[in-house]
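Researcher: We're teaching a course module on how sequence relates to structure. For the next exercise, students receive a sequence and then see the predicted structure as tokens, so they can try to spot secondary structure elements on their own. Here is the exercise chain.
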Amino acid sequence: MKKPNKAMIDGDIIAWKVAFVADIEGVMSIGSLITGLLNKWTPDCCDGTVIALSCPKSDNFRRDVYPGYKENREDAYKPEFLKDVFDFLIEEYDYMILPKLEADDILGIYASNGDAIAVTIDKDLKGVHGWHYNPNKDKEIRYVSKEEAYEFFCKQWMMGDSTDGIPGLWKIGPKKAEKFLSEWDKDDWEQNIIDLYDTDKHKVREDCDIPHPDIAIVMARCVKILTKKEYNLNKKQIKLWCPKSGS
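Model: And here is the predicted structure for the students to work with:
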């Protein structure tokens, strides 16, 4: 498997990390803090980097899918110099922002297309096949297969993600999700998960305000990080995930 020599780095996480430290050390520390983090985050095999940044939260396509997406973060504390950090990244580095997409999606599209190594500490990128690097855990880049990525996505689909306000199925955590997948034929995973969303035992909480027949698809589209199959780079068009559309 050919390794890309370009790193696509999650700039959102870089920005927040730097901004929290800058709150203590002051605005003049921003440049050196970013340089230090990017040096740590760039794999040795790369000779180029691009900083992926999210679109404005209100423009995120997942808000169109489910208005409650990341609603739980609205009142979260924002570091004083967060905007200064983002401005610095945009002025000083090669960066990419795509309409309606999060930084995660940009990483997913380019990694799944074999054009870049996805660099982030966010666990959600495990749902994308391609080359990855987690600077907090990896000594070198690693490859996530389509099978591994698909399994991770299916588990996330069941569990949801409380950090992002995605409820998922009631009382299903990692162990129960893994148990379900181990008991099912892989060809039936998607339909069985959809059926679970239609049961009373694991019914998603009522305050989601989503028509019940659609809840399974809505949750899948919220947790699914976009890949090359779900995004046309030339036309800047999103193809929302559907059952059996692949990952």
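Model: If you want an answer key for the exercise: The mean pLDDT is 92. The radius of gyration is 19 Å.
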